[in-house]
């Protein structure tokens, strides 16, 4: 399942996938795969992404 | 229907993977020590260390192949190149030349000790065999390594590109077009 909220949050912060990837210490491909729902990130990576984008885990990763 | 899905605890799985990694490291270390001991006790011969060579070469080729087919080789190169002063491809060439040099030294020493009848002849044999071996092995090994690197990188790039294909648009471009409402 695609993670549109993550993509929107990233764009709100005017960050490219590569820029977000560099901030959280992964590669651009990993961020791309998370947004596409093809990679299940660890909690540590989720937290790093949330902190970078000033969002909570619920806001970015909780599926309704 | 008949198969019960096996429960997998992610903490256990992670710890198991750590153990497998350590086992792999020890197997490689044992192979290298075995090669060294055999060279010292039985003399330098490639036939004596055939099994060890097969284990070392097969595991390296298998890892490269799997990494390329899963698309993670691209990421590995990217992570390495962004953090290191030398590119991974440059390191492959240096590694190939270094291996060639080690082989050339072994061959040179072997010729000097086994075939020369006097000290000047031993020195002459050493340098002659060393330079010929260095030229042959270094270029061959470095060439093979860079060829495998190129093939693995190309395959990995294609795999990761296909995995990311569903994306609406690219990276930098997407950031701006989305904001402007044109995406």
UniProtKB/TrEMBL annotation, chain A:
<feature type="domain" description="HTH cro/C1-type">
    <location>
        <begin position="6"/>
        <end position="60"/>
    </location>
</feature>
<dbReference type="InterPro" id="IPR010982">
    <property type="entry name" value="Lambda_DNA-bd_dom_sf"/>
</dbReference>
<dbReference type="InterPro" id="IPR001387">
    <property type="entry name" value="Cro/C1-type_HTH"/>
</dbReference>
<dbReference type="GO" id="GO:0003677">
    <property type="term" value="F:DNA binding"/>
</dbReference>
<protein>
    <submittedName>
        <fullName>Transcriptional regulator</fullName>
    </submittedName>
</protein>
<dbReference type="Pfam" id="PF01381">
    <property type="entry name" value="HTH_3"/>
</dbReference>
<keyword id="KW-0238">DNA-binding</keyword>
